[in-house]
Amino acid sequence: MRFDEAYSGRVFIASTSDLEAAETVLYGMPMDWTVSFRPGSRFGPNRVREVSLVLEEYSPYLDRDLSDIDYYDAGDIPLPFGNPEKSIQKIGEFVGQVLERKKRPIGIGGEHLVTWPAVQEVYRHYPQLAVIHLDAHADLRPDYEGEIYSHATPLHKIVQLLGADNVYQFGIRSGTREEFQSAEREGIHFHPFEVLQPLIDVLPGLEGRPVYVTVDIDVLDPAYAPGTGTPEPGGITSSELLASIHAIARSGVHVVGADLVEVAPAYDPTDQTPVVAAKVLREMLLGFSR
Description:
The chain is of the alpha/beta class. It has 8 helices and 10 strands. The chain has an 8-stranded parallel beta sheet, sandwiched between helices. It has a two-stranded antiparallel sheet with strand order 2-3. Helix 1 packs across helix 8, helix 2 runs parallel beside helix 3 (115-125) and helix 3 runs parallel beside helix 4 (154-162). Belongs to the arginase family. Agmatinase subfamily.
């Protein structure tokens, strides 16, 4: 699909209408075909855009304004309902076009399986790629009840593609015994329960490297983000998540792609979850731009 085939409704605040001038392309991946508990994350991208209007365009954390950068919101990729394989294909094709235009893709999910085709395409362009993964769940299962295309499997696929030494996981506090054991056995940079300090510790070793950052909103404690499909108590605060994005932004890593996934608005009538997601996205847009 082409950029001009994407959904053209509500856009994230301060999006430019000039695709050619944009350094970053924001896009939605409205898919929740494989979730194991509560559906609804397919409505996340649109709601995150809608609530972005509550934000200022200026970030006092980074002393940057969205007017200082050029980014283009391409809208949502139209995905075939209930068909994960075809949806993965369409996401990959779209991200490939973004990269061919020498632009940075930043996606809004949707369930976490959507990260897999995005990373595949980014890896094709950046073979030295490393992935930073912030999440409550390990997502390291080879399949979920026999299904290899599941929101419980994307990091397993990414490890198989990049190699365990190029995958960095933070905040993990849920998974099977086998997932935790395999993370240690295979040599993944695995940091359960905590995010900020272990992330700060590893960033110098990634300096100069192309990095893809994937954030599952359920890395936050449900007190900060109840609107998600698989809430997991014991998570980090919204302040720590923002500080983690800022640590990446201020480091020497080269963020070549990113996403934020698993916002399910129906389970949060207060809009607390999409608002925090929108703020994190604002900091990603500002912090990851050159």
